[in-house]
Amino acid sequence: MRLVSAVFKALKILELVNVKQRNVTELSDMTGIPRGTVHRILRTLEEAGYLYCEERKGINTFYVNQAVKRLSSGATDYFEEYYVIKPLLYDLARDIEWPIYLAVNDGFHMDVITSTEDISPFYLKDSILGARLPLFKSASGIAFLAACDSDVRKTLLLKMDHFIDDPRDRKWAKEQLMIAMTSSRVVMENCDWQNYDRPISSLSIGLNNAERAIGAITMRYYSSAYITDDVLDSWTNKLIAFREEFINKLRSRSGIAQDRECELAVAQLT
Predict the structure, then answer these.
(1) Which of 2, 64, 81, 165 has the fewest CB atoms inside 10 Å of its own CB, making it the most exposed?
(2) How far, in Å, CA of 133 to CA of 130, rounded?
(3) Is this prediction's pTM over 0.70?
(4) Shortest CA distance to 143 belongs to which of 214, 189, 205?
(5) Is residue 18 predicted with pLDDT exceeding 70?
(6) How many CA atoms lie within 13 A of 152 on its CB side?
């Protein structure tokens, strides 16, 4: 049986764009597929609704679109929220400048689905974009737990021992969670989720969609650039204000959607 190589190429390109927005040159370099073929595949996926294209700095850049939800019956509903949060995230990044990451919850992990790396003037060579972070060992995970309602948080914490063997790490996670529940933020200093001896720090807050916790936003920065108190003074309130604006935007969209449903119902009756 002959396999259709074009399908493999299209799926590979879709996977890469799903991790991070890309342009034709980047995808051609990463896959070895000729630029002309990449361009045709991208436009085909765009026509099918799986991608959409935006011009960034004069270059056509491709992003995943709503139709990707059709690829999995278990697709979560954060895509609708993603379209609300994306412009807000970029506005925040222009103010803070350090790269900011959005991670959504997937059980006992946090999937980092987007970032502002492309507009940040500060380059961190070890990107977490596309990473699958551990719920109990990452700033994003702890911030998400703090944002959960008490019943959900209790259920998740019952499984902590299955994911953290070292009692000292469990103690750290619980301490950070208590701080996050009272201060709405988590700070991991001089470390990252894979290595506890790194010159990178993270500041995270949990994110809600007005009904439940869905994830977290995390700012990463070089530890040597700031002391923790300065970070908290400078950026915690900005991140919290961002979360409130995001929730208000979602409520506004929900209200508009409900009004439209009512209008359609009335129109059908009349």
Answers:
(1) 2
(2) 9
(3) no
(4) 205
(5) yes
(6) 13
What per-residue confidence (pLDDT) applies to 125?
Answer: 72
**Are the C-beta atoms of 102 and 75 separated by less than 8 Å?**
no
61 or 82, higher pLDDT: 61
The sign of the CA dihedral 29, 35, 39, 42 is negative
Higher-pLDDT residue of 247 and 26 is 26
CA dist list (Å): 255 to 243, 250, 269: 18, 9, 21
Weakest mean pLDDT among 79-83, 166-170, 183-187, 237-241: 79-83
Per-residue pLDDT at 98 exceeds 80: yes
Sequence letter at residue 153: R
Query: Which residues on neighbouring strands pair with residue 112, listed in sequence order?
Result: 103
Token pair 């979560």: residue: 76
Q: Phi-psi bin for 50: left (phi > 0), alpha (psi -120 to 50), beta?
A: alpha
* Residue 38 buriedness (CB in 10 A; 0-12 / 13-18 / 19+): buried
Question: Domains, the chain, ranges and CATH?
Answer: 5-69 (1.10.10.10), 76-255 (3.30.450.40)
171 dihedral zone (left: phi>0; alpha: psi -120 to 50; beta): alpha
Whole-number Å distance between alpha carbons of 66 and 51: 8
